[in-house]
Amino acid sequence: MAELIHAHLDGELKLATLAGECGLSVGHFTRSFRNSFGTSAHRYLIQQRIRAAKAFLLETSSPLSQVAVQAGFSDQAALERLKEWSVCLQEGGAENAPDGNSSSRDFRSAFIQRANYLDDL
Question: Does position 64 have pLDDT exceeding 80, yes or no?
Fold first, then answer.
């Protein structure tokens, strides 16, 4: 299942599609996924997209808009919203977040730092 999710990070992936690949109903798939992975399929997908974005940010100097799309987000704004979401994962919370007027370089650094936290989960 993880391989299917990884193969489709850059596209729209629906629970019904994942459930169908496993031959399960959506409800049964949802429960089974949570039992196997310890999180919901949606959260797992977002975590994998964050990891992909982190890798692109570390390996390339591509514009944030391109990194967002490559990692499977609909646009740059969706990626930038995750900067705020990832603050919730950090100890210390929002007071450690850069302000909303951060430059692209500041965003890259902050996002990578926060994405590193996922590796510790």
Answer: yes
